[in-house]
Write a structure and sequence with these properties.
- By secondary structure, this protein is mostly helical.
- Helices cover 79% and strands 1% of the residues.
- About 4% of the residues have low confidence.
Length: 309
Amino acid sequence: MLNAILLSLAGLVGLAIGGELLVRGAVGIAQKLGISTLVTGLVIVGFATSMPEMVASVQAALEGSPGIAWGNIVGSNLANTLLILGATALVMPIALTGGGRRDAVVALIATIGLAALAYSQLGARWIGGALLVGIVSYIVWRYRYPGAAQEDDDDDDDDAPENGYVASALFAAGLAVLVFSGQILVTGAIDLATLFGVSETAIGLTVVAFGTSLPELAASVAAALRGKPGLAIGNVVGSNIYNILLIGGVTMGIAPFALPENLLGVQMGLLIASAVALLGLLWFAKSIGRAMGLVLLAAFLGNVVFVFM
């Protein structure tokens, strides 16, 4: 038991370190390319911070544990919207300037598609291919049509590496740490599920999802503190899209099986509700304040308790 706990903790710490290196490198590369802050959050940082989820889910699929893989995807999206936005709003209320609305629509459509896939109990490699086509189409569309939200593009990120070579080195180092840490975390998570007699999906929804969401949490809180709401929101929305289309596509391609049935019901309902709530906030609210942050956090913690009950 001690070995499983140590492996899981080591994997979580490694994912946090690797994710931070990857994000810093990604932001530095994006700045050198002259990409806007919102698009950096949606495409570059969203992709970079989704790499822990990618590594953990792919590793789980390769080891024959699709419950951990899909539980991680669903749990990470719940953590992004409820935990990360909630915690970020408690630290610093997030001003909403209109950016990310179109992307929140894409995230909601992807979420509804994932729910439909779960309830249909279909599993095939062509479905994985279709999801991957979806993420490629999104990236091309978002790069060609970045939108008008450039609210903080003129601000320099003092923590981003100035040198392009340094940024690339940080990105590569972060990716290497993530791959190694992901393997350790999945091994420990499978052992924990066996030891405590809970489903692998439950471990994926909670322990693995929390660990793989640490980079998004760090990136969003840091962005809010630096007065970059576009980066904070873009990171969360972009990561949600990547988790479903990219990670879900790769996972389905490796292990073309139906999603675990214990993701149906409450988990899918909460996932859709959180996507609708995020879209509603971006369209109708001027900010995500501390009161709303508490509501989001309460929903996340309540679901964790429900999963283990």
